[in-house]
Amino acid sequence: xxxxxxxxxxxxxxxxxxxxxxxxxxxxxxxxxxxxxxxxxxxxxxxxxxxxxxxxxxxxxxxxxxxxxxxxxxxxxxxxxxxxxxxxxxxxxxx
Length: 95
Known about the structure:
globular
């Protein structure tokens, strides 16, 4: 799972990499070539979370979260989803 920084999403990260390093094969594509599944996680507040089923993204309640909660709740939830989706196979964590 690749996690970009707060305020970015997977698409903008890929676009930035291609803009600043055109023609270069980035590490996530090399990882795919090595046979690994690659997941891109988007934090809350990106364009991919704007259609939340319970909260309107224009409400203050929607935006009422801390940076710490992204690590405490969101990242573990994404890892758990990946684990369930890949049939309980081992997940390799790489820094």
